[in-house]
C-alpha cells in the first residue's frame, strides 16, 4: 500500500500544480460610459454622494477621496472651499446576490486501476488507469453584483458624463472592491461613449 500511494503522489501534486497555474489573480469589471466631456484644463471639481443621507458618511468620504485622486491624475483639481467648475456625484450599490453554478476539477473522482507489467531488472507490477481524465464537479456559489456609478455635471445641472463599473464578487466586502471599481472606471477615462468595455486589472502587476 505504501508503494502504491507513493506512485500516486506525483499525479496528485501535478494535478494541483496545473489547477494553481490555471488561476489568475485578475479583477474583471464591465464599464460603460456616456459623455460630452471636453478635454480637462484643470477644472475644479466638488465630489459628493448622490444620496443626501450619505453625505456625512465617513465611508463615502473615503470613496470620494479615491475618486478625487483619479480625477486629479486625469487633469482635474479639487475645488475645496472655492466655487467648483464641475460637480461629481457618485453612488455605490451591491445587490442581494444570486446563485451561480461553476465547474471545477474534481480530485476526488473514483478511479479504476488495472495492472500492467514493466521490464526493469525483472518483472514488477504497477497500477494504472487507462481511462482516467480530469473529471469536474458542479459547485453552487452565491455571487453579488457591486456597482459604482459616477456623474459629472456643470453647476447649472447640465450632465456631461455618466458612467458605471460593475463586477461580480463572492462577498459583500464593499470597501475592498470600490477602489478596484474606481480604477476600472478610470481606465482610458472618459472612454468611448456608449460602449461597454470589459476591463481586466492584473492584481499581481499592481502589487496587490
Short note summarizing the structure:
The protein is an alpha+beta fold. The protein has three helices and ten strands. It has a single domain (27-108, 116-202), classed as Double Stranded RNA Binding Domain, CATH 3.30.160.
Describe this structure in words.
With 208 residues, this protein is of the alpha+beta class. The protein has one domain (27-108, 116-202): Double Stranded RNA Binding Domain (2-Layer Sandwich). The chain is built from three helices and ten strands. The protein has helices at 2-22, 58-73, 174-185; strands at 26-35, 44-49, 77-78, 86-94, 98-105, 114-119, 123-128, 136-153, 159-169, 195-202. The strands form two sheets. Strands 1, 2, 3, 4, 5, 8, 9 and 10 form an eight-stranded mixed beta sheet that branches. Strands 6-7 form a two-stranded antiparallel sheet. Helix 2 (58-73) runs parallel beside helix 3. It is elongated and about 60 Å long. The two termini are 44 Å apart. The model is unreliable at 1-23 and 109-126 (pLDDT under 50).
Series of secondary-structure elements, N-terminal to C-terminal: HEEHEEEEEEEHE
As for the CATH topology, it is: Double Stranded RNA Binding Domain
**How many helices?**
3
| Number of separate domains | 1
Apparent shape: elongated
Distance between the termini: 44 Å
Amino acid at each position: 500500500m505504501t508503494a502504491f500511494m507513493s506512485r500516486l503522489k506525483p499525479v496528485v501534486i501535478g494535478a494541483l500544480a496545473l489547477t494553481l497555474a490555471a488561476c489568475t489573480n485578475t479583477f474583471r469589471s464591465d464599464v460603460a460610459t456616456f459623455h460630452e466631456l471636453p478635454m480637462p484644463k484643470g477644472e475644479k471639481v466638488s465630489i459628493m454622494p448622490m444620496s443626501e443621507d450619505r453625505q456625512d458618511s465617513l465611508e463615502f468620504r473615503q470613496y470620494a477621496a479615491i475618486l478625487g485622486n483619479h480625477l486629479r491624475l486625469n487633469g482635474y483639481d479639487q475645488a475645496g472651499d472655492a466655487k467648483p467648475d464641475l460637480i461629481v456625484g457618485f453612488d455605490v450599490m451591491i445587490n442581494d446576490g444570486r446563485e451561480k453554478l461553476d465547474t471545477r476539477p474534481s480530485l476526488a473522482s473514483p478511479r479504476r486501476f488495472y495492472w500492467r507489467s514493466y521490464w526493469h531488472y525483472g518483472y514488477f507490477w504497477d497500477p494504472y488507469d487507462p481511462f482516467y481524465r480530469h473529471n469536474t464537479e458542479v459547485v453552487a456559489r452565491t455571487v453579488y453584483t457591486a456597482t459604482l456609478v459616477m456623474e459629472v455635471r456643470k453647476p447649472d445641472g447640465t450632465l456631461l458624463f455618466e458612467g458605471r463599473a460593475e463586477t461580480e464578487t463572492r462577498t459583500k466586502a464593499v470597501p475592498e472592491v470600490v477602489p478596484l471599481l474606481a480604477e476600472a472606471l478610470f481606465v482610458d477615462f472618459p472612454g468611448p461613449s456608449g460602449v461597454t468595455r470589459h476591463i481586466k486589472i492584473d492584481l499581481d502587476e499592481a502589487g496587490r
